[in-house]
Amino acid sequence: MTFRFALLSILGLLGLGSHGEARPLPTVRGVDLKRYSGKWFEIARLPNAFQKQNERAIAEYLPSVDGSMVVRNTGISDDGKTRIAIGRATVVPGSDGSRLRVKFSGLASLVPVSKDGNYWIIALDADYRSAMVGTPDRKFLWILSRDPVLDPPTLEEYVAKARLLGFSTEALKWDLGNR
């Protein structure tokens, strides 16, 4: 058992946030967006209305000269068909890169985005090889990896952390290569 997992387990046993109140969602300290940029494979996610059930996703983050990032999400269905969504991510002031406001084009541009952001990086390994992203209302969660398959210990650690933070991990939709 890793130290982080043990610490998370102890916090869970203490009942932090177990009284039905939405407690603040902690994010990682500081994200180097140049290191974060590039391709990420979706390992698992909570179901949502904008991603089709049978799709696996690949997200690409490309830095812009103005400090924002271009976001390119590709959904790949079982039959190989792809859907692409393009957006822009901007850093929430004071978050040191750990909270982003992501806004997509097309009809998705009509959806309001909180000033506090809708893309909170809540776990990120030191080598920027895996990450977990969620929203403070705990309705959205993604586990991401630079590789199509994430090693089981890291995956288990992320799921345990998400559960302790109040996400419905039993509802996670898995990429078939990871479960």
- The CATH superfamily is identified as Calycin beta-barrel core domain
Helix-strand category = alpha+beta
Q: How many beta-strand runs?
A: 9
Biggest sheet descriptor: 8 strands, antiparallel, barrel
Distance between the termini: 20 Å
Order of helices and strands: HHEEEEEEEEHE
CATH secondary-structure class: Mainly Beta
Helix fraction, binned, reads 10-25%
Order of strands, main sheet, comes to 1-2-3-4-5-6-7-8
Please tell me what the overall shape is: globular
Unreliable stretches (pLDDT < 50, length at least 5) are 1-21
Count of spatially separate domains? 1
Percentage of β-strand residues? 25-35%
Mean model confidence by pLDDT: 84
User: So how many helices?
Assistant: 3
Name given to the CATH architecture? Beta Barrel
Give the CATH topology. Answer: Lipocalin
Rounded to the nearest angstrom, the radius of gyration is: 16 Å
